[in-house]
Design a protein that fits this description.
With 401 residues, the chain is of the alpha+beta class. The chain is 31% helix and 34% strand.
Length: 401
């Protein structure tokens, strides 16, 4: 009985071993994959923007005094040279009259000095007076002439100061806030302006482009000037999420990169016929971006490590992490600036589950336009398919006892 039981135990072990040997070897796990293709990329990019009037003029007084009149209201549209404020004119009128009187007195003194000089000159010719007396008379005449010029200058200053009591708009625009009221004491050194007049017939919208984007535009068009000339109209999204009905044009791109942000300032101009746009507001500029020979990949094909972006390239069925430089094309796709070339095979989904050196089986769809915007030509995958067939053949091998 013991011998029979041992034979049965041995036979069961042998059967189990054979059954285990017949199980297929575990092959690489399948992952959706794409082939990088160079094509024209068309998308939109959104940039935070600040809105300014074409001309924002802070209005400061040029003299000190008390405000006696506010001639405008907040938000009122004014014309160039329209009266805005009046400063107490009484002391400045008095100063002008004093200056005018001083001019008349200086003129009289000069006339007297001229008569004296002419008389001394005649007497000197008759040797009645000395050269000293004649020279003294000449000096008095010159002093009187200088005094007259000084008084005239003071009169000009007094007249100018009187004109400064009426503060007028330097341009057409809209009046801002009025922090000072009638009776307030104002001066040129005051911290805040009397108001700000904004010329908002056209509005300047400022935003920033990255250094990489600027380089891309420069390479594409040859120069910043050519890029500006060829760039499409831009749109403005207002703070409430609505789209401004008028399109704008990019007018200038700064030639200096901000060292702290790595960006350049861009200015777009928007017409503002109905005054919807207000100086000081904020919004978003929406740009249509086109890039030829761009490598487009889905964002699902990337992962981040410490703010660095990576993809997994598949070569010889091995997944290898590759750092890439990218920028947004839209909500689901990136344009690759560096790190991926046309023809590279990339894992399209599930990259968070992969590890460096993992064996994978790329699975290609007939077209992946819905995911990446790139229709994959399956004829370019022949080599990959051959490798897959060889790997599958190895996986089907069984152990026979």
């Amino acid at each position: 009985m013991v011998l029979y039981a041992g034979v049965l135990l041995f036979a069961g072990s042998l059967t189990a071993a054979c059954n285990r040997g017949k199980q297929p070897a575990q092959g690489p796990k399948e992952y959706p994959a794409i082939v990088a293709v160079a094509e024209e990329a068309v998308g939109t990019a959104t940039y935070s923007a600040s809105i300014r009037g074409r001309q924002d003029i802070d209005v400061y007084p040029q003299i000190s005094g008390t405000l006696t009149k506010l001639a405008v209201q907040e938000g009122e549209r004014v014309k160039e040279n329209q009266l805005l404020f009046v400063i107490d004119q009484v002391p400045y009128i008095a100063a002008l009259r004093t200056a005018e009187a001083n001019v008349k007195a200086a003129e009289a003194a000069l006339n007297t000095a001229k008569l004296t000089y002419d008389s001394k000159k005649t007497l000197r010719e008759k040797n009645v007076v000395s050269d000293f007396d004649l020279q003294t008379a000449m000096n008095n005449k010159r002093t009187a002439e200088a005094t007259l010029e000084q008084m005239k200058a003071l009169e000009v200053t007094a007249r100018q100061n009187l004109s400064y009591t009426e503060i007028r708009s330097a341009s057409e625009g809209v009046v801002g806030t009025l922090p000072y009221r009638k009776g307030a004491l104002v001066s040129p050194s005051m911290p805040n302006p009397l108001t700000t007049v904004s010329d908002n017939s056209q509005m300047y919208v400022y935003f920033s482009l990255s250094e990489n984007r600027l380089l891309s535009l420069t390479r594409e068009y040859g120069s910043i000037e050519a890029a500006i000339a060829n760039m499409e109209d831009v749109y403005l999204q207002l703070n409430d999420g609505s789209i401004y009905p008028q399109t704008g044009r990019i007018e200038s791109i700064s030639g200096v990169i901000n060292r702290s942000t790595g960006t350049v300032s861009v200015r777009a101009v928007f017409p503002n016929p109905k005054g919807i746009l207000l100086s000081g507001a904020s919004g978003n500029v929406i740009m249509t971006e086109r890039q030829s020979n761009a490598i487009i990949i889905p964002k699902a094909a990337t992962f981040e490590v410490q703010d660095r972006v990576f993809v997994y390239k598949v070569k010889d069925s091995i997944a290898t992490a590759q750092e890439v430089t990218v920028h947004n094309l839209d909500a689901k796709r990136y344009i690759v600036d560096k790190g991926v070339e046309a023809g590279d095979v990339l894992v399209a989904e599930g990259v968070g589950l992969l590890r460096e050196g993992t064996k994978v089986k790329p699975v290609f769809q007939p077209a992946v336009a819905d995911t990446t915007g790139v229709a994959v030509d399956t004829t370019s995958l022949v080599a990959v398919e051959i490798a897959e067939e060889e790997m599958a053949a190895e996986a089907d091998t069984t152990i026979v006892l």
